[in-house]
Amino acid sequence: MASSSVSLSFSSSLHPHPLSPNKSPTAHRAQDPNFKLAHCAYAAPAKSTRSPSSSSSSSSSSSQTRKRHWKQGEFPGVSETSVPRRTPLKNVKKKLDRKDKAKAWVNTVTEEFCHSIDNKQWLRALEVFEMLKEQPFYQPKEGTYMRLLLLLGRSGQPQRAQGIFDEMVEEGCQPTAELYTALLTAYCRSNLIHEAFSVLNQMKTFPQCQPDVFTYSTLIKACIDNLQFELVESLYEEMAARSITPNTVTQNVVLSGYGKAGMYDQMERVLSGMLEGESCKPDVWTMNVILTIFGNKGQIEMMERWYQKFRDFGIEPETRTFNILINAYGKKKLYDKMSTVMEYMRKLHFPWTTATYNNVIEAFADVGDAKNMEYTFDQMRAEDMKADTKTFCCLIRGYANAGLFHKVISSVQLAGKFEIPENTTFYNAVISACAKADDLMEMERVFNRMKEKQVSPDSSTYAVMVEAYRKEGMNDKIYYLEQEISADAIQTD
Predict the structure, then answer these.
(1) For the chain, which residues score pLDDT lower than 50?
(2) 166, 172, 188, 360 - which has most CB atoms within 10 Å?
(3) CA–CA dist 257, 264 (Å, integer)
(4) Are 283 and 318 in contact (CB under 8 A)?
(5) What is residue 439's predicted lDDT score, i.e. its pLDDT?
(6) Which of 406, 404, 456, 454 is nearest to 428 (CA)?
(7) 186 φ/ψ angles, rounded to the nearest 5 degrees
(8) Which of 448, 461, 459, 446 is nearest to 415 (CA)?
(9) Tell me, what's the pLDDT at 385?
(10) Quick check: bond before 246 cis, omega within 30?
(11) The pLDDT of residue 471
(12) What's the rounded Cα separation, in Å, for the pair 450 and 4?
């Protein structure tokens, strides 16, 4: 009886509520006195009003004005009254062709460089950059080096980023605080904290490259991610000595770090300073950080209490805020509250996103409720919502928990049909499903395919496989797997 009531409540939430053509979303939201929402305006892109006729007329008029390929008074001496005779334009055409080819080459190199940057192809970008420097028109520019530094940082290439920075200085480009911060970010992304501090100290020696709030925020985030909280406090003191006030982004990063580490006293101290101060007031991101912390810890009452505090403070929720609530309620099997939040989103015309559906699918997957999980996925597809890797990871895990291994296989096949990116998390879900089905042969096939696709296994991958082999007493398999773990320098939990 309980399960049917859950299904009924959830089904009512998923039922679509079409917008009335005569009522705007703003009017609906204004009618609900218990829910305040931020108003967002979306402007459609302006369409070009230039007609084809005007374009053709302009091109014809331009062709009429370009009668001659020489200046007034030059050979063959055209006057106002004389009619110009036809002259061979062979040489002129050759010159124009040469110019066009040169321009095409310039555009090709430049466009290829931008294409490599946009597609995060750092090795190709460096190759094209070398070609670019050989061109006669090339001049070192700060923007070019900035794009390279950011790309190399995101691609985990801090040493190459340092090389590009040194090359920039040698070519006469003056370093700026922004360029130094990009280099520092590259080290921070690779968790090279010592090198990042070296860049910070180097910045301090140049008057025109003094670190700013963005520099310190980047370094603070790296220290938070590496759980080096003592360095965070020293950076705060240094900022105060330099009269640099942390902004809201900085404080949100620190709040998230303290919360994940369970350092609630420090988190509350930072949050109280934001609420009482004037320099960096909390925003919706602050709200989302705090709700995520308590939601992930399963502290629903604290999450709800802080939600109300932020609402009283005047902070309006957004779609991500509601997704956080849905995720937290789903993990605690509070389906009625999860359904209520979804109904509020429909009522107030907040869109259900891929993350919304993923949270609901995950809630049912955790308990092996294949029926409601499938219903949610079908509704997701009916509303033309694009599924992603997490969607299929949840489906695979849900079918495995329900003991429906044949549906695990069909989900993997459907993911391939949809061209879903197969990352480490995806393969871990399939390997775990195989282990639950005691199909170790299929598990090994998936593991080999994972390596063929050059997807790196992580500690979770090995932990699941070791446990599956241990369950069957296959110690030789465990031995070979541990040798591979040592070779890959990955430690199992």
Answers:
(1) 1-12, 15-87, 89, 103-106, 490-493
(2) 360
(3) 10
(4) no
(5) 95
(6) 456
(7) -60, -45
(8) 446
(9) 94
(10) no
(11) 94
(12) 40
